[in-house]
Amino acid sequence: xxxxxxxxxxxxxxxxxxxxxxxxxxxxxxxxxxxxxxxxxxxxxxxxxxxxxxxxxxxxxxxxxxxxxxxxxxxxxxxxxxxxxxxxxxxxxxxxxxxxxxxxxxxxxxxxx
Amino acid sequence: xxxxxxxxxxxxxxxxxxxxxxxxxxxxxxxxxxxxxxxxxxxxxxxxxxxxxxxxxxxxxxxxxxxxxxxxxxxxxxxxxxxxxxxxxxxxxxxxxxxxxxxxxxxxxxxxxxx
Lengths: 113, 115
What we know:
The complex is a heterodimer of chains A (113) and B (115).
Chain A: E1 5-7, E2 10-13, E3 19-24, E4 31-38, E5 42-50, E6 53-57, E7 64-68, E8 74-78, E9 87-94, E10 103-104, E11 108-112
Parallel strand pairs in A: 2-11
Antiparallel strand pairs in A: 1-3, 3-8, 4-5, 4-9, 5-6, 7-8, 9-10, 9-11
Chain B: E1 3-5, E2 10-14, E3 19-21, E4 24-26, E5 31-38, E6 44-50, E7 56-58, E8 64-68, E9 73-78, E10 87-95, E11 104-105, E12 109-114
Parallel strand pairs in B: 2-12
Antiparallel strand pairs in B: 1-4, 3-9, 5-6, 5-10, 7-8, 8-9, 10-11, 10-12
C-alpha cells in the first residue's frame, strides 16, 4: 500500500497570506490527524478527522482550520500567517482511532517570511 | 489530562552497546503507548506500541520496550546500537477506550550512536 502523502513538501509564504496543505491517507484509513512540529514546542496536536467529522481539536487559534472529504483526503488551512507558524506540518492516518497506529506522512515544511 | 515525559534531550551511546531511551507517562485510565523515530527531514516512523498483554513489546529494527504500570514507564531499548539508529525518538500516549482524546507526544530524545 502507498503511504501517507502530503503536498506540497515545501512552501514559502509571507505574513498575512493564507495557505492550504493537503494530505492523502493510506488507502482504507478513515482517520486523519494533523500535527505541528517546531524545535521549541515539539509535536503539537492540531485536529483529528474521522469520516468527515472533526473528532478533536488542539489548542490552536481559529486561524487554523481543517476538513476531510468523503474519500478521506484532508486539508488544513492557515489564514493570516504569522512568523511563528513556520513549522513542519505532519499528517497521520489510521484505520480507526484509539489504539490504532497512526502512520505519518513526510510533512510539509512551511516557512513564513 | 494526559502527558508524556522524556527526561533526556540527548542520549549518546557507543556502537555495539545497549541503548535505553526513557519515557514516563501520565493518563487518567489505561494507556496506549507508542514509540516513533524521526530521521532528518522525514516524517515519523512507527517503531512499536503497547496495547495490552505482554509487558515486553518487540518492534521494528530490533527495538523493544517494556511497559511498567507501577512506574508508569515505557522505556525503549535495543541490545546493540548501530550508527544508523542515530535519530530523534518520540514516545506517545493515548487513553484507552477514549476515541476523543488525541495522541500526545513527548518532546523527543535525540539518540547519537558513535562508531
